[in-house]
From TrEMBL, chains A, B:
Gene: proA
InterPro entries listed in its UniProt record: Ald_DH/histidinol_DH, Ald_DH_C, Ald_DH_N, Aldehyde_DH_dom, G-glutamylP_reductase_CS, Glu-5-SA_DH, GPR_dom
Function: Catalyzes the NADPH-dependent reduction of L-glutamate 5-phosphate into L-glutamate 5-semialdehyde and phosphate. The product spontaneously undergoes cyclization to form 1-pyrroline-5-carboxylate.
Enzyme class: oxidoreductase
Keyword NADP applies: yes
Family according to the record: Belongs to the gamma-glutamyl phosphate reductase family.
Natural source organism: Singulisphaera acidiphila (strain ATCC BAA-1392 / DSM 18658 / VKM B-2454 / MOB10)
Signal sequence residues: none
GO biological process: L-proline biosynthetic process
Name of the featured protein: Gamma-glutamyl phosphate reductase
Keyword terms of this UniProt record: Amino-acid biosynthesis, Cytoplasm, NADP, Oxidoreductase, Proline biosynthesis
Pfam families named among the record's database cross-references: Aldedh
Main localization (coarse): cytoplasm
SUPFAM superfamilies, sorted: ALDH-like (SSF53720)
Length: 425, 425
């Protein structure tokens, strides 16, 4: 009986939280750019002034981290220090420096009957961020949501709860002083997982859910959410080296795509090489990759040329390693390469390295991924690198947003029509 | 036992149908505009040449209609004749005349490192249309999906199955001759409802579901779909008449918004009138509405002025009548009007009638609907009227598409990056 009451209370609190966000969103939609930028700048300043308070809260999370079984790498990502707080403050200022997306006229026309028709960019409304134990996401998400005129509900991992509460206090304390509604940025106060489920079942109050973290978190959110979810599950990215290619360039790009930062979603996981150059190219690229500590898993044709490769298993083609391992296959043609990609890619990022114009154009037209790259590293599929500014995530879906998502992807549109008495005949 | 086998077979057939659509979608993505337009023109021609075949098939549906309990209005919408087939053929030619949305460059930049970055419009992929017994939707949906480079799976109501099969035969027979894949437009062959459920659970094969019909159909699709759904549930549209207004114009617009075609989603359902003009405006507008056969349901303040009004019930404010009934309320201010709208609107279309610039600008900025209209009829929220050309539906969601949806709303984007050896440092 007491458990039933408790669950009902969580549901009730979740509803109230979402209702407050919805009321705040109506005010955020008409907030001035000046107010939003003032909040970003005041928060950056306050973050530096209150660094000690944030670091003290963070220390509680760090102390508890072994109890949660966090790995050393996870504890490192969780750790805040003066330098990282400084970077986070700079991040807020960078978002302040971006143009305000709200109010932009996207299309306009004057209709034959004199109606003046415009399609105007407006905020989405309420955005629910669900993420793991990376406190910097609290700052990034709040900054991008507020700048794009939305209200944010933030739910970070329980392992970072004290850090997130401290960071949220800093942000929230500057809202009213900047002329923004106090509920524009809310942190879910409890770490009870049930609240996430409740909120994900409120499509009338929450316009978008954004999970950031491992694939299991994302799948859980997609399964439960009744509103749209901005997400990608995996980045199983391919580099295809065509028959005609600058081999030195190709080696440089393959090494960069695989080894420069292997743990991220736009790192390459599979290398496909045209049969005509395999005998000369594979030994060169293998040597360079091995020098970077990359384990090579080749198909039979590859291993005939570089026998030190491990034999690739069928499951390798569908694996996002996120570490220094690369699957390698020899293909007979660009068609075979694109067929392999169509079958195994997660639709994130694919690159072709070629001198051949027909190959480049075919690859760009026919490969169905969020970014298709010619003669450059897959690592460029990133909001900052493509010129969008800070990104809230990368989408491999085709609906609404595809690829890196910045401020514009957190907006919707509204048709605005001015007339002087027009009626339909 | 036999039932289990049957269900499995339907699931298997649904998978194969979706797989064929997905293969066709890859070819459709690179189909030329010339091929797509050739198909639209050939289909228009074939439709007229094969009108007798279509009308004969339609006669079978009409004969069966009373058995399905269709109303006279529904039977009328189901009925095809030479004139309607002619209109449908013209509709295909109108879509052919629109610009091809695919390949449009939406944003572009050259990055500091020399990367040439473009964001290009591409098709969504596979679109699943679920609709009722209106055979014209078969034509509209196929035309818009093909023109936008998508593969279509069509599922009309069982009451129109013979008409839809005949129309689909006409369309499908022209695909190969136009150089398009034969599976670019598929009709679900069976009327078994289970197939819809199977297909709605295939987000890896189908990119978008579009239900067109009554609210119960749409809710069922949204409940079951694992892919995005383009939809609106209701059009509970409001007209607010401000204190300062050209009353003759306001009467004309209110009558048009309510009575010109009451059964459509952009017809007005509620009239809100500023208290300052209620005493003069309500009798005028009431007389004009009653002359059009509109039943008026007023709040207490309205009925003090026009006592012949029926008393409005609280549930009226949330009702999409879709007939000649209008709820009427008197409000103290534009704020009260906007608060009423925020509470009761379905986010479809709201209009303000005013001479006051501040009121107009506030209404446009603060009302959160797919279209916000100043001094014109709500009936203008329509793809053709706003200049989009033919529409596949109207969305009251904010994600991806909002308001009338034409060719562009059936597309996604792809980032295309050309470099000459760039790597990330």
């Amino acid at each position: 009986m007491s458990q039933v009451i408790e669950v009902d209370q969580l549901l009730q609190e979740s509803r109230e939280l979402a209702d407050r966000a919805k009321v705040a969103a109506r005010r955020m939609a008409i907030a001035s750019g000046a107010a939003k930028d003032a909040w970003l700048k005041r928060s950056a300043q306050a973050l530096i002034e209150r660094a000690a308070e944030v670091i003290a809260a963070n220390a509680r999370d760090i102390a508890a981290a072994p109890g949660y079984g966090l790995t050393a790498a996870a504890i490192d990502r969780l750790t805040l220090n003066a330098k990282r707080i400084d970077e986070m403050a700079k991040g807020l200022l960078e978002v302040a420096a971006q143009a305000d997306p709200i109010g932009e006229v996207i299309t306009s026309s004057r209709r034959p009957n004199g109606l003046q028709v415009t399609q105007v960019r407006v905020p989405l409304g309420v955005i629910f961020m669900i993420y793991e134990s990376r406190p910097n996401v609290t700052l990034d998400a709040a900054a991008l949501c507020v700048k794009s005129g939305n209200a944010a509900i933030l739910r970070g991992g329980k392992e970072a709860i004290h850090s997130n509460r401290a960071l949220h206090r800093v942000l929230a304390d500057e809202l009213a002083a900047s002329g923004l509604p106090a509920d524009a940025v809310q942190l879910v106060p409890t770490t009870d997982r049930a609240v996430v489920g409740h909120l994900l079942r409120m499509p009338d109050k929450i316009d978008l859910a954004i999970p950031r973290g491992g694939e299991s978190l994302i799948r859980r959110v997609v399964d439960e959410a009744k509103m749209p979810v901005l997400k990608h599950y995996q980045g199983n990215c391919h580099v295809y080296v065509d028959a005609e290619v600058d081999q030195a360039m190709a080696v440089r790009i393959v090494v960069n795509a695989k080894a420069q930062r292997p743990g991220v979603c736009n790192a390459a996981e599979t290398l496909l090489v045209h049969r005509d150059i395999a005998a000369t190219f594979l030994p060169r690229v293998a040597e360079a990759l091995i020098a970077q500590g990359v384990e090579l898993r080749g198909d039979e044709a590859s291993r005939q040329i570089v026998p030190t490769m491990v034999a690739v298993e069928p499951s390798d083609w569908d694996t996002e390693y996120l570490e220094k391992i690369l699957a390698i296959g020899v293909v007979d043609s660009i068609d075979a390469a694109m067929a392999h990609i169509a079958r195994h890619s997660s639709g994130h990022t694919e690159a072709i390295l070629t001198r051949d114009l027909v190959s480049a154009r075919r690859f760009v037209d026919e490969v169905d991924s969020s970014a298709v790259i010619v003669n450059a590293s897959t690592r460029f599929n990133d909001g900052g690198q493509l010129g969008l500014g800070a990104e809230i995530g990368i989408s491999t879906d085709k609906y609404h947003a595809r690829g890196p998502c910045g401020l514009r992807e957190l907006t919707s549109t509204k048709w605005v029509v001015y007339g002087d008495g027009q009626i339909r005949e």
